[in-house]
Amino acid sequence: MHFIARKYKNMKRFGILLPIAVFLCVLVLAPRVVHAEKGSTDAAENTASSNGEKQADAQAKALAEQRKEAATKREETLKKALDAQQEALRKQSESIQKQQERIKDQRNETFKKGCEARVAGFKVRMQTVVTGVKHRGETLDSILERVQSYVKEKNLSVLDYQALLTDVQAKKALAQSIYASAKQDGSFDCTSSDAAKESLNTFKDVAQQEVDAIKAYKDSVRKLITAVKTAAQAAEGASNAGAQ
Fold first, then answer.
1. Which of 23, 24, 88, 190 could bridge 115 with an S-S bond, Cβ 3.0-4.6 Å?
2. Is 92 exposed, middle or buried (0-12, 13-18, 19+ CB in 10 A)?
3. Overall number of domains in the chain
């Protein structure tokens, strides 16, 4: 009985201690379980976060690559458009230049034909001037010969006769030189408007030089004639006075 009572007492004591032991185990093991669960959760979250970051990076890289490709395509398209525009402008410029050259050639050809048609008229006018100068020069030559013959025949003493005669001969030589030059230079350039104008101006200058030279020759002969007349009148007056 005593053994049974003691065993019962021990069982009663064990029944009291068992809940306490269980409670203590729970207190000890619970934080570890929580920590393990938290660690598992954190690891899962870290893994998920890492996967998300990688996925985001991949998406960002893909987007950047798409944008780069799009920008490259835009640049290529723009470059092709600019090249095409420049080529079109170049062709247009060449076409305009060729058209201007054709128009210029047509104008030059038209001008040349018209100029050549008028050259005959210019040459006729020039020849008229040259012929007129020649005739006047020959007339003055004839007058000069008669004056010289008259002075010699009458044995006149003309004031400054030699100087006057030298001036007449110089003016005559100049007129003849200009006449010879004008007679040889009968060319007329119709290659361009400027060349035609220059040729026309040359014709006019030569014609004016001839006219001026003949006028100077004529004035010199006139002075000689005036001096001879004065000498002849003086000689006639002296002869009449001697006869009386």
1. 190
2. exposed
3. 1
Beta-carbon contacts of 225 under 8 Å, excluding residues fewer than 6 positions away, are 143, 147
Residue 220 in tokens: 């010199």
pLDDT tens digits for range 90-105: 999 989 988 888 888 7
Q: Which domain holds residue 143?
A: 124-243
At 151, which amino acid appears? Answer: V
**Is residue 208 in some structural domain?**
yes
SS (H, E, C) the chain: CHHHHHHHHHHHHHHHHHHHHHHHHHHHHHHHHHHHHHHHHHHHHHHHHHHHHHHHHHHHHHHHHHHHHHHHHHHHHHHHHHHHHHHHHHHHHHHHHHHHHHHHHHHHHHHHHHHHHHHHHHHHHHHHHHHHHHHHHHHHHHHHHHHHHHHHHHCCCCCCHHHHHHHHHHHHHHHHHHHHHHHHCCCCCCCCHHHHHHHHHHHHHHHHHHHHHHHHHHHHHHHHHHHHHHHHHHHHHHHHHHHC
Domain presence at residue 28 = no
List own/partner pairs for 102-107 with CB under 8 A and 24 or more apart. none
Instruction: Give tens-digit pLDDT for 122-177.
Output: 778 777 877 888 899 999 999 999 999 999 998 988 999 999 999 999 999 998 88
CA angle 181, 183, 184 (to 5 degrees): 70
Cβ atoms of residues 122 and 182 within 8 Å: no
Residue 1 lies in a domain: no
Residue 129 lies in a domain: yes
